[in-house]
Amino acid sequence: MARLTWDNTGERLYETGVRNGVLYVVDAQGAYSNGVAWNGLISVTESPSGAEATALYADDIKYLNLISAEEFGATIEAYTYPDEFMECDGSVEIATGAVIGQQNRKMFGLCYRTVLGNDVDGNDHGYKLHIIYGAQASPSDKEYGTIDDSPDAITFSWEITTTPVSVTNHKPTATVTIDSTKVDATKLAALEAVLYGGENTTARLPLPAELITLLS
Q1: Is residue 117 within a helix (H) or strand (E), and if so which, with residue range?
Q2: Pairing outcome for strands 41-46 and 156-162
Q3: What distance in Å separates the CA atoms of residue 81 and residue 53, rounded to the nearest whole number?
Q4: How would residue 199 be classed by pLDDT, with cut points 50, 70 and 90?
Q5: CB neighbours (10 Å) of residue 202?
Q6: Quick one: pLDDT band at residue 49, thresholds 50, 70, 90?
Q7: Residues 38, 134, 104, 160: is their CA dihedral positive or negative?
Q8: Of the residues 14, 34, 148, 203, which has the fewest C-beta atoms closer than 10 A?
Q9: What is the model's pLDDT at position 144?
């Protein structure tokens, strides 16, 4: 067997950026349909929690660890958001241009893309698609300030929690990541045609069962 080596040419990978955000609001039938572009996306900070160990002792020794359920949360930061996100943020338009808050918050899905680079290709090496299911946004602060000699645009931020969706032969999940450097290019293109829509189709978010079929 060959001796391990480190930092070989082409293997110095890194991940950066966030772009191509798409919002999918859950409709009355529970489907993630009618995806819309999310412009002005600044960051998505993924914050998994749980999976904590509880130690059990017996016979004067540590008997085993019980691991708690893992949950997926995130923070979305953006300069702006699609009109369709208002209902996910507890707002409803009651007349053209008039919106009320403190309403029921709709569940949504989110897809965004990050750059996968290396020491040879730079930022052109590839990318990853990140998909979030069953997301719900919590109320968040909105800080408005005066325009001064150092103007800056207001940023919006939302903490989100998730409800996992079923995955055949696996535990339910709220997140899927797809690596363009490993997935077949034709199958990836077919998936992106679903995620982003086409000339005759509307963008929508496939559930894991359909996603697996598209990539298998």
Answers
A1: strand 108-118
A2: unpaired
A3: 38
A4: confident
A5: 11
A6: confident
A7: negative
A8: 148
A9: 82
User: Which residue has tokens 């029921």?
Assistant: 104
Q: pLDDT tens digits, residue range 10-37? A: 889 999 999 999 999 998 888 888 899 9
Long-range contacts: 185-189, Cβ < 8 Å, 24+? 187/214, 187/215, 188/215
113-147: pLDDT as tens digits: 999 999 999 999 999 999 999 999 988 878 888 88
What pairs with residue 77 in β-bridges? 43, 157
Q: How far is CA 10 from CA 114, 119, 121, 126, 150, in A?
A: 19, 6, 8, 12, 42
How far is C-alpha 56 from the chain's CA centre? 35
pLDDT in tens, 74-90: 999 999 999 999 999 98
Q: Render 51-91 in DSSP notation, one character per residue.
A: --EEEEEETTEEEEEEEPPEE-EEEEEES---GGGGGGGT-
Which tokens go with 30?
């529970």
Report which of 114, 109, 122 is spatially closest to residue 13, judged by C-alpha positions: 122
Q: Is the pLDDT of residue 197 over 80?
A: yes
Closest CA to 23 of 11, 34, 10: 34
Q: Which residue blocks in the chain are alpha helix, DSSP H? A: 185-196, 208-215
Tell me, rounded to whole angstroms, the distance of Cα 143 from its chain centroid. Answer: 25
**Residue 30 in contact with residue 133, Cβ under 8 Å?**
no
